[in-house]
Design the sequence.
């Protein structure tokens, strides 16, 4: 090799890969060109500060003369995604070591009908006690009749629960019932694609008519450690996690070290100007609205489960924008968008000049 990356671990990796390539009659084409370090490596390690190459280009030995140049093109996603994966693995391994695995709560048919089942069992046990105390034909017939009724009601509850869990859905034509799992998932994807990916109706002319304000350079500052802590405290602990299954509770009780690592990661994202792919991917879960036909997709509400770290970053951005918008851009009547105000505060505002005040009909007002 004429040239290679500066880090020893990269050289060792190249040596191992070169040995494997010699056995398969291949060449590592990345190592034959004298280029700057930024074009020989993909990213720099955050702790050792050694340049590393993530991907290599292999060519047949006979085709070496046909290759003119090979260089590495760095991408922001290669840095931020790798940093996010490291942070995710550390948090997951630490939580597993300290907290252990949570016991999975299985859904059973009797959980949804616990009150009705308890009432039926109380009635049956009462008749059974009466039959044991006084063995007559009347008490025996009443007990056996109640026992049959309880068994029948329990079977009906179980069958109804199973039907709800395995309910079919209708196709887009409104007539075809889909029963296969793959077709049902495809139908859900088609439905949410039409609901969520709607084109905007705002024109550029309407945007140009908006009043322009001076540029606020403070919005370009890197996210700070106090801003990260504030964003974590503002998000509820009951927020459902995304694909990495890291709940909000771990971030709240992770301590200062986790907040420092999270802030450093957000600052690197800010410098690169791009976010990891995990922040963009979402898991969509549909919930029945409890009205209308269960088989219609329109009667279900879709909820997007996002990465918790991405929600923290979004909360930091929201706090920055909220403070900027309050400076003369929001009206006093927009209480729901202002800090330390609620939407109900508008009720207690005085009426506008010249506008009559409406009072509810009471005996005093009707005099």
Sequence:
């Amino acid at each position: 090799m004429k040239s290679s990356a500066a880090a020893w671990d990269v050289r060792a990796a190249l040596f191992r890969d070169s040995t494997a390539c010699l056995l398969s009659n291949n060449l590592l084409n990345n190592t034959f060109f004298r280029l700057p370090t930024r074009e020989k490596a993909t990213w720099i390690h955050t702790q050792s500060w050694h340049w590393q190459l993530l991907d290599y280009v292999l060519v047949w030995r006979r085709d070496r003369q046909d290759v003119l140049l090979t260089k590495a093109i760095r991408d922001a996603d290669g840095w931020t995604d790798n940093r996010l994966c490291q942070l995710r693995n550390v948090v997951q391994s630490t939580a597993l070591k300290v907290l252990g695995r949570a016991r999975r709560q299985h859904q059973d048919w009797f959980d949804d009908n616990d009150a009705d089942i308890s009432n039926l069992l109380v009635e049956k046990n009462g008749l059974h006690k009466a039959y044991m105390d006084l063995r007559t034909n009347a008490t025996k017939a009443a007990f056996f009749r109640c026992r049959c009724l309880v068994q029948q009601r329990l079977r009906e509850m179980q069958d109804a629960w199973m039907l709800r869990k395995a309910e079919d859905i209708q196709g887009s034509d409104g007539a075809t019932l889909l029963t296969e799992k793959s077709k049902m998932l495809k139908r859900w994807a088609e439905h949410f694609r039409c609901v969520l990916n709607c084109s905007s109706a705002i024109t550029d002319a309407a945007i140009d008519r908006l009043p322009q304000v001076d540029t606020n350079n403070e919005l370009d500052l890197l996210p700070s450690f106090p801003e990260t802590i504030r964003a974590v405290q503002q998000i509820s602990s009951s927020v459902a996690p995304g694909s990495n299954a890291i709940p909000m509770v771990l971030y709240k009780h992770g301590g200062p070290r986790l907040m420092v690592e999270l802030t450093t990661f957000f600052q690197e994202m800010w410098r690169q100007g791009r976010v990891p792919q995990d922040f963009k991917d979402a898991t969509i879960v549909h919930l029945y609205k409890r009205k209308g036909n269960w088989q219609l997709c329109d009667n279900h509400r879709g909820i997007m489960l996002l990465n918790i770290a991405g929600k923290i970053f979004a909360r930091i951005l929201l706090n920055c924008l909220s403070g900027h918008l309050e400076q003369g851009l929001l009206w006093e009547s927009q209480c729901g968008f202002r800090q330390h105000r609620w939407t109900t505060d508008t009720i207690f505002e005085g009426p506008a000049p010249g506008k009559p005040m409406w009072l509810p009909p009471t005996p005093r007002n009707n005099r």
Notes: The chain has twelve helices and eight strands. Confidence is low (pLDDT under 50) at residues 1-12.
